[in-house]
Amino acid sequence: MIDTGRFTENFPLRRKCLKSLVVMGMVLPGSSFNKVYAFSSNLFPWSAPEYDVIVVGAGAAGLAAAIEAADKDLKVVVLEKAPEIGGNTLISGGFYSSVDPERQKQQGIEDSEEFFFKQTYEGGGKQADEVLVRHLVHQAQDGLQWLEKLGLHFKDEVFELYGAHWTRSHTPVLPLGQGYIRTLSGAALQRGVQIQTNHSVIELLRERDRVNGVIAVYEGKKKKFYATKGVILTSGSFAANRGLIRKFSPNLSALTTNNTPYSTGEPMIAAEKIGAELTGMEFIQCLPGCPPGKKYRVRFHNDVSTFIFLDHNGRRFIREDAPRDELRDAVLKQNGGYAFTLMDGAGFKKAGILVQKEAVLALEAGEAWRANSIEELAKKIGMQPEVLKQTVNKYNEGVREKKDIFGKKITLQTLELKEPPFWAAYAGMTIHYTEGGLKINEKAQVLDKKGIPIKGLYAAGAVTGGIHGKNRLGGNGLADAIVFGRTAGQNIANE
């Protein structure tokens, strides 16, 4: 277990040595960057039992908060429930939505913070906190630039992610969320942040109406951690807690989840027990995934410019850029609760190596199909060739004429489906994101049931609610994590 806090506390020389170890690859050795590395705490008897800040959760929000707090010269410990750091960020698509005049202008895309706000607020059914939405869209670009300054590299082109509604989604060069965790964990360690894994936080400690610590379970035993400034909860969603899903949205309780198994919401419930308000708990978002009984999730849906949805007869039934909640409900209404996605060879090349790998594995398992013609593909899936051919022809005609029969927005990036080989895969629905959680203000302070900030308690990322309303736009999850994680880390210094 890494115990960098004990190694660095009040020792400038040790901080310098730690930074050297990071640079030399001894602390973050290549592909194992997401594991926790450390010197045994028993070797350093100068450890203090108290920190300035305790961060609960080592995903993007938690690490961003830890970095900002450390930059305020605060002593920070990050407690992570899982054996490895990264959380859902690590396995996410890694897409970050933000207004970006430099990249967007090169692609002829008009955008603004006000338009971003309008889409985010209205896309959430106008049920989000307007103040929080404005903070998100206003700080998203600064968060993007902050990540780039830390060393995270993004591709030059932006695109329209599934459910994003506009061409402002940024793709990191490293696949999925690896770049975020590699960059953020390295920056945190360089600043002397201590990271401890296998610590499940189950209770918050209060003294004189101020949160001043947590109780965590480590190797079956309870441990207390104290903090002079307070606690930042960044423990993620409750998407893997079937009991909570059943309680707040019983119609989705039978679905699988693409979250880590550690996304069970205990810190959120612990905060509620001391008086924190929960909001929007019934809003639960789903993305295309493997149907029950299937093994592989093939993400042909990531880029709305490259694919179409099909019903079991080979016909489209909804525009692919519809709000995610509408897409979820439309797919679940199909026979068996699942549909199909189709893309051509050009879209497949554009999808990236990891999506391609998923598709090949699914193909070998009989859960995806590939053919050199639409007619051949239809036969392999079990659809009528003439029906599927007509569907694709009508879609291509709409792309050429920039007028889709279902109302899908046709842009310069939208591809016709005409280049072989053609691909198709199952598209069920899997629980992706819980929009509800702890109610916070624009300073990331957790609010009680009267709307008053709970002293010493902050929260950021998917553990919070009120930012997205009933429907989160694609790419806004990581923007939310970075923006409010940074906000929490900056403001807790004022406690």
Q: How far is it from the N-terminal to the C-terminal residue, by CA?
A: 29 Å
Write down the overall geometry. Answer: globular
**Can you give the mean pLDDT?**
91
The CATH topology name of the largest domain reads: FAD/NAD(P)-binding domain
In total, how many beta strands?
18
Class of secondary structure makeup: alpha/beta
Number of domains: 2
Helix content: 25-40%
Describe what you observe in this structure:
- The chain contains 16 helices and 18 strands.
- 55% of the residues are buried.
- Strand 16 and strand 17 (453-459) form a beta hairpin.
- It has helices at 4-8, 12-24, 60-70, 87-91, 101-106, 113-123, 130-150, 178-190, 242-248, 266-273, 324-332, 345-351, 353-364, 374-381, 385-401, 476-491; strands at residues 50-56, 76-79, 96-97, 169-170, 194-196, 200-207, 210-218, 221-233, 278-279, 284-289, 307-310, 339-343, 368-371, 422-434, 437-439, 445-447, 453-459, 464-465.
- It is globular.
- By secondary structure, the chain is α/β, with parallel strands linked by helices.
- Helices cover 34% and strands 20% of the residues.
- The strands form 4 sheets. Strands 1, 2, 5, 6, 7, 8, 16 and 17 form an 8-stranded mixed beta sheet that branches.
- It folds into 2 domains: 1-96 and 178-281 and 435-495, 3-Layer(bba) Sandwich (FAD/NAD(P)-binding domain); 287-431, Alpha-Beta Complex (Flavocytochrome C3, Chain A, domain 1).
